[in-house]
Design a protein that fits this description.
The chain is α+β, with helices and mostly antiparallel strands. It has 9 helices and 11 strands. Strands 3, 4, 5, 6, 7, 8, 9, 10 and 11 form a 9-stranded antiparallel beta sheet that branches. Strands 1-2 form a two-stranded antiparallel ribbon.
Length: 271
Amino acid sequence: MRYKISELSTLLHVTTNTIRRYEKMGYITSKRCETSNYRYFTEEDITIFMNIRLLRKYGFTHSEIAEMKKSELSTLISTYEKRMETIDEQIYYLSNLRHRLKDDLVLMKKTDELNQQCYIRDCVALSYVLYQRGDKILTEPDRVMAVQEYLYRSPEVQRMYLIRKEDIENDKFTLHAGWAVKRSDVDKYKMKENEYTERYEKRKSLLRVVKLPVHAENHRMHVKESLLKESFTYMKEHHLIIAGDIIGIVIANVEEENRQMQYVLIGIPIE
């Protein structure tokens, strides 16, 4: 069976330009009809074309496919096995990324349900690294290395804030910023910890969702008033005291009334 380029385009549901590109790359070769002199393709070209399209769907690059054309069966098997491993890694990564997306979605929905109410629950055990203390950026080489490890190794990394217990006791409200993952993710993603990574233990905490401007004019007072005022009032009414550092996990960034805001889940360890 002979196919004109327009017929092949219709049959394969691709443009004629795609067919010409595949021909230029050496995958398929048109022939000339001796009587009419028009170019045509054969069933062999269809088979080759569809095989190339399948290999592209598998994720092989054109240069890899060019090498595979010269491969024996044993080499082809090895190439397929390596590609399978890569796809498995991608599936694993996307599965965990979906899990993080689902967590974010649950927290955002809870934000509406809670309406900034306080509630008591165990917090999640975290591993984290800080990169900012108040207005000061922390740039020690090993710290920067740890930040990169957290940012790019785990798909479930979360932006976090931290206020030291001793700072609050001394009436200081320095807000630290960093990146955090669940403690279980450290081993899961084979992450490296160093002297700049810290651990936050699971503990009974007072939780509350608050809104915080991305850019606060008076940083210290804003932390005290917006992040902690209502929680501290609740603690006083229920005879609770702070039992550790305060953490905040960023749930979402939004724009409200022409102002960039972030929803933050605040956790205060209590006794």
